[in-house]
Input
Amino acid sequence: MEGIRQRRFSERALLERAGINPQLLNKTEKRFHTDPVARLFRSVQETLDDEFMGFTETPCRVGLFTMMMECVRHCKTLGEMLERAITFYNLVSADIPMTLSTQADRAIVSFTMRRPELDTAHFMTEWWLVIWHRFPSWYIREPIRLHETHFTFAAPTHRDELGIMFPAHLRFNQAANQLIFDVQYLDKPLRRTQQQLVDFIGNAPADLMTIPGSKETLEAQIEREFSEPAPGRLTLTSLETIAQKFNVSVQTVHRRLRANDTSYQKIKDHLRREMAIQQLTEAHMTVEQVAERVGYSEPRSFSRAFKQWTGVTPRGYCKQHRAAGANDTT
Output
């Protein structure tokens, strides 16, 4: 949100449109699901017309990531794709100069921020490392195992989080930011179709925020159980039924979800919020229809829950969405 603050745009409006209750930001222990955070990223980038979100001297116009993907879609191997993608970004921007090199059995993706003082909290640095680990992993359909991740800054207070984001040996106060992995990955074939690339762009940056391999977690499996029986309508089964389905005890489900900082109730709330937002804004259903489809017998109960999730009522959310759409077309 830093670029939004600097340019004096409304933080609250962007957060509410993303489905994030602004009042929850003061709770430092609060975690947010990928989907609303991805919507927030897109809103910030579109509002600023800057895919670098204000953290560099020169804006990176919205659409350049899509153009980069168009440039690499005919590549055959990961190494070829990385070389072409890095060349593309070095040509269009001097703010994050990048290199791809090899040393013995290691491949190294390396970059520095030309104006690091514009990225004081190192947010853009960490996000750029995320992109160049997860996008290649997605493209080869295989999580790239990192040997080391280097950072130009000192170890931050959220060092443990970086250990989750980049499961490798972390080194701080280095000369460059680097992802270091086995050189054999460069020969891996790219295994995505053109349609999958189109879908990836349409869903961006949500897939970049997903840690490779995390779609097979218990949380992801439960989400699929709720969503698959009747598309467009949630089927919220009991925790006991879920435990039976996965052939484990209820206590085991609780423990495994808690280990990933989530819960059965959080999963239900997330799915309800995401389906409600989609049906209110895309399917243009009434509040009463949406309440019933996401499992609420009373529209008032649904409205209270929706405001707790997003900071605004369902009708208020629809009004904001229409206003934002009108602004986008003017």
Summary: The beta strands are 98-103, 106-111, 146-150, 169-171, 177-182. The CA atoms of residues 61 and 266 lie 35 Å apart. DSSP finds 15 helices and five strands in the chain.
